[in-house]
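Reopening this ticket.

The earlier resolution said the output was attached, but the attachment link was broken on my side. Pasting everything inline this time so it's all in one place.
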Amino acid sequence: MSENLSNKPAKPLHKLKARLKRSGEKRVYSWRMLIVLPAWVSVAFVASNLLIAGLLIALNWIHVSIDSLVRPAIVSTVIATLIYILTIGIAIAGPYLLKRKATTDTADLGLNRLVSWADIGLAPLTFLVYTVVAGVILALATSLFPAFSVDQAQDVGFKAFGSRADNLLAFGTLVILAPLAEETLFRGYLYGKLKKYVPTLVAALVTSLLFGVAHFQWNVGIDVFILSLFLCGLRSLTGSIWAGILVHMIKNGIAYYLIFISPIVGG
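Inline output:
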């Protein structure tokens, strides 16, 4: 009886020591992961581009034109979609193949639950606040740096296709697939992993910086950097990327309207 009582405190003490040891190890490796994770996502993105380029070269070598498989107007759509899908796949599968065990789960990606009413309510509110903040910052940038142009249009890879089918494809890619893929990769995988090893603010800043750089245009990069900070905040607040996906869909939906619908209706 006395032996059992004396053994009871030992178990929680052992667990506490194990947690302290793990937390100590995490602190040691945190700043290394701040470099490793963004670098790994960048490598996955470059590898995806090379794989797609290699596929196109191989098709051309066997005299199969991509234009014969997909209409020329939507080639860029297919390529951009494949690149993002491959990037996510490589980023997740690479560590698994090396360690022979899963290193990423649905909680890491922020996809461990379905969309909620809170996500739906927060999305438009966050978009409005982001729009005001981004507008103020871009206006300040223009006044401080006259050479900085906020009017430079973002190249979304689409043209005015004209046909209903092509416009529907553009809508599906820009408003649905792109937000899902980008949020899963950046606010899901990258931010979800980084905030385990570094302070949340640092993880948000690094994620947003890489997201801005990925858009290859100064004005667009600054705008999406600000957007990403809001989306990272939503991820931390809700524990999911669904609210961020909805915000991203609203933004891209407005862009779709301005590019494809407004010229038709004369808006």
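Reporter confirms the inline version is readable. The two ends are 84 Å apart (CA to CA). Residues 1-29 have pLDDT under 50 and may be disordered.
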